[in-house]
C-alpha cells in the first residue's frame, strides 16, 4: 500500500520529501584520495532512495546532474586548497600599453616578425597624445607607423586630431601637459594631411 501512495504524490510533495531526506542524511564530504568511489557509492545510495520514491527518469537525470556538479565544485575547491601558491606563481600579464609598445617596436625593429593587430593599433591611436602612455622615444616610431596608415583609420585619426586641436585652442587652460599634446597633434596633422 505504501508504494501505491508514493505513486500518487504530487511533484511538490515529492520535492518536499526529498528535501527532508537530504536534511536528515547530509551529503558526505569527499577527500581527494576517495574521489570517484565516493561519488559512485553516493549515487548508488541515491538511486536506492530514488527507487523507493519511484522518481521519473527526468527527475533522476536532474538529480544526477546536481550530484555531478557538486562533486566537481568539491574537486575544484580541494585542488585550490592543495596548491595555495599556484595563483601567485603565474607570471603577471603585460598591460595594454606594454603590448602596444612592444607591437610598435617589433614593427620598427623586425618587420618580418611583425603582424598587424587591430587592437594594438587602436590602442596606439587612442593614446598617442598622452606622454605617459606613449613616451617620446616611442612617439617618433609611432609617427613613422602612421605614415602607412590607410583608409578609414587614417580619416578618423585626422578628424579626431582636428577636433582635439579646435578644442584645445578654444580652452583657456595652459600648461606643459596641454602644450605637449598640442605639439603631438600638430605633428600628426602635418604628417597625415
UniProtKB/TrEMBL annotation:
Q: What ranges does the record list as Basic residues composition bias? A: 68-77
Q: Which GO terms describe its cellular component?
A: extracellular space
Q: Which superkingdom?
A: Eukaryota
State where composition is biased (Basic and acidic residues).
1-13, 58-67
Q: Name one GO molecular function term.
A: hormone activity
Sequence ranges of Acidic residues compositional bias: 48-57
Which parts of the sequence belong to the WKF domain?
Answer: 102-163
Region Disordered, residue ranges = 1-97
Task: Name the GO terms of the biological process aspect.
Answer: adenylate cyclase-inhibiting G protein-coupled receptor signaling pathway; negative regulation of cholesterol biosynthetic process; positive regulation of cholesterol biosynthetic process
Listed name of the protein: Chromosome 7 open reading frame 50
Give the species.
Naja naja (Indian cobra)
Starting at the broadest rank, the lineage of the source organism is:
Eukaryota, Metazoa, Chordata, Craniata, Vertebrata
Amino acid at each position: 500500500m505504501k508504494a501505491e501512495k508514493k505513486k500518487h504524490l504530487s511533484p511538490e510533495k515529492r520535492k518536499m520529501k526529498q528535501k527532508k531526506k537530504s536534511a536528515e542524511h547530509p551529503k558526505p564530504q569527499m577527500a581527494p584520495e576517495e574521489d570517484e568511489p565516493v561519488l559512485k557509492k553516493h549515487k548508488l545510495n541515491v538511486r536506492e532512495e530514488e527507487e523507493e520514491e519511484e522518481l521519473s527518469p527526468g527527475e533522476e537525470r536532474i538529480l544526477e546532474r546536481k550530484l555531478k556538479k557538486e562533486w566537481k565544485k568539491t574537486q575544484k575547491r580541494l585542488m585550490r586548497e592543495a596548491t595555495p601558491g599556484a595563483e601567485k606563481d603565474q607570471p603577471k600579464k603585460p598591460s595594454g600599453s606594454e603590448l602596444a609598445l612592444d607591437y610598435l617596436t617589433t614593427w620598427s625593429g623586425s618587420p618580418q616578425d611583425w603582424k598587424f593587430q587591430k587592437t594594438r593599433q587602436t590602442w596606439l591611436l587612442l593614446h598617442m597624445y598622452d606622454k605617459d602612455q606613449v613616451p617620446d622615444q616611442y612617439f617618433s616610431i609611432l609617427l613613422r607607423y602612421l605614415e602607412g596608415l590607410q583608409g578609414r583609420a587614417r580619416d578618423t585619426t585626422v578628424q579626431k586630431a582636428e577636433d582635439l586641436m579646435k578644442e584645445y585652442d578654444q580652452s583657456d587652460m595652459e600648461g606643459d601637459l596641454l602644450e605637449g599634446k598640442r605639439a603631438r597633434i600638430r605633428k600628426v596633422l602635418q604628417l597625415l594631411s
